[in-house]
Design brief:
By secondary structure, the chain is an alpha/beta fold. It is 39% helix and 14% strand. Helix 1 packs across helix 3. It starts with a helix and ends with a helix. GO terms for molecular function: fatty acyl-[ACP] hydrolase activity.
Length: 263
């Protein structure tokens, strides 16, 4: 019976259009605020057969749109961990997160390490401040509950990750604003305090940022792992990763990092 529930959970949470049961490593992608799985799940066709790519579908969107949104980061992390745990124990895995997804991927990595002694072989974060950085604090004080729809929409447009034609459709626009608001609310419940002596992770961390995006405090990711940390600026704005030429760069680079991890 338990197996059946885990299977149902996988069906809801994990989107993997290019299944590779013999892959050496799983790359699990975490979407941005308001985002679904369509773009990152398609990365599977860009990678070689040694890497299986899946993207996480969070509650409240796509085929889960009737489900309530996660109420806080802990709830989200617990769902992701309980569904993925068995898979993650079977073979090596890496995480890629963009923006809001970077914070979730870090929170999940932290939980896996603390509770199960499990860790990704590599953490790829993109377009996000380190969660231990001063620069992360203003995100926590965006008055998301009282923000008018227009303000949320303006914020979404500044980020520029939404095709303008989607915003022509009133229902789609409403749902996007709602999803974005709920994702931001979850992010505001995430508190991470790094203690002086404790370095939480030991995997290598790679930080990507769009060259035209607002600068993110990436340096502080350095303090979160005893592994190597590297930094790349990639041409483009906050959603640089949707450009085909950048997808190719990311695919090659992520592949090289994973293959160098000596699986």
């Amino acid at each position: 019976v338990l197996g059946f529930w885990v299977f149902l959970g996988m069906e809801k949470l994990v989107v993997c259009p290019y299944k590779r049961p013999n892959a050496l490593c799983r790359l699990i992608c975490f979407p941005w605020a308001g985002g679904g799985t369509s773009q990152l799940a398609q990365w599977g066709k860009l990678f070689s057969s040694s890497i299986e790519v899946s993207s996480l579908r969070l509650p409240g969107r796509e085929s889960r749109f009737r489900e309530p949104f996660a109420k806080d980061m802990t709830t989200l992390v617990n769902e992701i961990t309980s569904v993925l745990l068995k898979e993650l124990q079977e073979k090596p895995f890496a995480f890629f997160g963009h923006s809001f997804g970077s914070y979730i991927s870090f929170a999940v990595a932290l939980h896996l390490k603390e509770k199960y002694g499990l860790e990704p072989i590599h953490l790829f974060v993109s377009g996000a401040h380190a969660p231990n950085s001063e620069a992360f604090l203003p995100i926590k004080s965006i008055p998301i509950c009282d923000a008018k729809d227009e303000d949320v929409l303006r914020y979404i447009q500044i980020l520029g990750g939404t095709p303008p034609e989607l915003l022509q459709n009133e229902d789609v626009k409403k749902h996007l604003i709602l999803t974005f608001r709920e994702d931001l609310r979850v992010l505001q419940t995430f508190s991470f305090k790094k203690s002086e002596r404790n370095i939480p992770l030991s995997c290598d961390v790679t930080c990507f940022n769009g060259s035209e995006d607002k600068p993110h405090d990436l340096e502080a990711w350095n303090e979160l792992t005893s592994g190597d940390t590297s930094f790349y600026k990639i041409p483009g704005g906050h959603f640089y990763l949707l450009e085909p030429s950048n997808e190719i760069f990311l695919t090659k680079h992520i592949t090289r990092c994973i293959e160098n991890a000596g699986l």
